[in-house]
Specification:
Elements lengths: L24 E8 L10 E4 L10 H5 L2 E3 L2 E5 L5 E4 L1 H14 L7 H14 L10 E11 L11 E12 L8 E6 L16 H15 L4 E5 L7 E4 L3 E6 L4 E3 L10 H12 L5 E3 L4 H7 E8 L3 E10 L2 E4 L4 H15 L9 E3 L8
Length: 350
């Protein structure tokens, strides 16, 4: 039996954006790498503050990771998740990169089921948005001096967020001659610290009317990598779909992988994962878009770099991909790839 929550008010579905709304419950799990098994099963708790030692390693040394995935309410009323197993696997890879014991995939999936089921009333109606799930793992061990930590915790919370439309507004990017992360660093992991530095870089661009920045690779400052929190794609004049290859500076996005799979297998596009310079993007691309859990697929209308500004009028490839991916996420299309997971009724009471 889970403890009763305060019963927070539901938001107005028509005004939802990608912003935080407090819900009823969170999931917590403790881990200790000095015992076997390392991880306890997650438990449901009423939403509220969590307790940490001031000396917790996550606070001083940033030993923490996170994930992001969505649950959708289908027309038949059932709620389903999109590719949670892929997020669970990346959660493990990110933890290992920060020398934390990985959270087992089965416990991850069970915790997500529990969280969404406990907050089921906060999952928006079909077409009105989704329920965004934010799993985090952090080193809670109190220590002075950094190193691998034994005492760990996983915390998951969620929030209803607004819908991404078929004709969602395109964004403007400013390409910057700097890298998002250091070469050989934690760029391939979803580490908390990777995102803190982006605020300082993207802030001035947003003040100039841009939606985000597009980073270049750290080694040459010539090839594009990704934005502050999304992977980047272009379609060139030859009809090739191109995205930078995964390396130590680029996160393996779940939506990125979904786009590549559908583009190759269903749309039969010429897909290339290869370095692409900012000069080639500006000279050869007719379409550009970004992918990520928050944006799904977001068209890029304009990229500014140095004294140049180029528009990208194309939308065809993005729109075709969006229709398939969003249709699968929401249950409008039959899932032929096993990418969705139904959230069982009563999962939080088991």
């Amino acid at each position: 039996m889970i403890a009763p929550a305060r019963g927070n008010p539901l938001p107005e579905w028509s005004t939802l954006t990608f912003a935080f709304t407090e819900t009823d419950y969170i999931v917590r799990a403790e881990g200790d790498a000095s015992r076997e098994p390392v991880w306890e099963t997650g438990r449901i708790e009423p939403y509220g503050p969590i307790s940490l030692s001031p000396a917790a390693a996550v606070l001083s040394y940033g030993v923490g990771i996170f994930e992001g995935l969505k649950a959708f309410r289908r027309e038949d009323g059932h709620v389903q998740l999109f590719r949670p197993d892929a997020n669970a696997a990346r959660f493990q890879r990110s933890a290992e990169r920060l020398s934390m014991a990985p959270f087992p995939v089965d416990l991850f999936l069970s915790a997500v089921d529990q969280l969404v089921d406990a907050n089921r009333r906060f999952v928006p109606p079909p077409g009105r948005g989704s329920f965004y799930v934010r799993p985090m793992q952090h080193a809670v061990e109190a220590r002075l001096g950094f190193g691998a930590c034994h005492e760990l915790a996983v915390t998951m919370y969620g929030s209803p967020v607004g819908a991404v439309g078929a004709k969602s507004e395109a964004i403007r990017l400013q390409a910057v001659e700097r890298a998002r992360v250091a070469p050989g660093g934690t760029g391939a992991a979803k580490a908390m610290g990777n995102y803190a530095g982006s605020v300082h870089v993207a802030g001035p661009a947003r003040e100039q009317g841009f939606d985000d920045v597009l980073y270049l690779d750290a080694r040459t400052l010539t090839n594009v990598t990704e934005t502050s929190g999304a992977n980047f794609f272009v379609v060139n004049r030859a009809g090739q779909l191109i995205t930078p290859p995964l390396d130590d500076q680029i996160l393996a996005g779940v939506t990125r992988d979904s786009v590549l799979t559908i583009a190759r297998d269903e749309l039969r596009l010429d897909v290339q994962e290869r370095p692409i310079s900012i000069d080639e993007v500006l000279a050869e691309a007719g379409e550009a878009f970004c992918t990520g859990t928050a944006w799904t697929l977001k068209s890029v209308d304009e990229i500014a770099f140095r004294d140049r500004s180029v528009r990208f009028p194309g939308r065809e490839v993005r729109d075709r991909l969006w229709e398939i991916i969003s249709g699968t996420q929401t249950g409008r299309r039959v899932d032929t790839r096993g990418w969705t997971r139904l959230v069982p009724e009563g999962a939080s009471r088991r």
